[in-house]
Amino acid sequence: AQTVTQSQPEMSVQEAETVTLSCTYDTSESDYYLFWYKQPPSRQMILVIRQEAYKQQNATENRFSVNFQKAAKSFSLKISDSQLGDAAMYFCAYNAGNMLTFGGGTRLMVKP
Amino acid sequence: GAVVSQHPSRVICKSGTSVKIECRSLDFQATTMFWYRQFPKQSLMLMATSNEGSKATYEQGVEKDKFLINHASLTLSTLTVTSAHPEDSSFYICSATSGSRETQYFGPGTRLLVL
What we know:
The structure holds two protein chains of two kinds.
Chain A: E1 3-5, E2 10-14, E3 19-21, E4 24-26, E5 33-39, E6 46-52, E7 60-61, E8 64-69, E9 74-79, E10 88-95, E11 100-102, E12 106-111
Parallel strand pairs in A: 2-12
Antiparallel strand pairs in A: 1-4, 3-9, 5-6, 5-10, 7-8, 8-9, 10-11, 10-12
Chain B: E1 4-7, E2 10-13, E3 19-25, E4 32-38, E5 44-51, E6 57-58, E7 67-73, E8 76-81, E9 90-97, E10 105-106, E11 110-114
Parallel strand pairs in B: 2-11
Antiparallel strand pairs in B: 1-3, 3-8, 4-5, 4-9, 5-6, 7-8, 9-10, 9-11
């Protein structure tokens, strides 16, 4: 069974600084997709970024980028120029078929 | 991006009554919809997967007779919590996808409180 691990229950970053959230996963599949979702206090799940495992190039979306290390099964999220609105729960997720497997989440706090 | 709506956003009901939650994909056809439950400060727990026109597939430990799921069209799935009890109080979230391995887009969630 696939598992997704987020080893940092909480992280804190100063506004305008950069923070990296860790995620590792376990799978025997070679073709899969990885996601980062953000869940702010409203509890709406928002897609932050998506990575296809067959692509070597790391995905980027404005201030958000990932460091995808397929051999190490690592998928970290880097948030640059952190803003107060980035404060939320962040969930890493894996999909090899039709089902998402979520990590336990990391709560990100942004200090003004 | 794709939009998924969920209704109601919040519901309070008496123990023993049934509650229906609707999930709609507003700008795409959802071949598959998912229902999750989320306890405070925890991750999402998948309850069931539903494909349009077929019976839902329930995860282990989820009572199919208690959590009735109907996916009657490519844009609508419903979750009915039958004979609700206080332990069913939770945050329920749906998601929808247009195909296998496609991105899941989430509804805003429904907070259920059973008194």
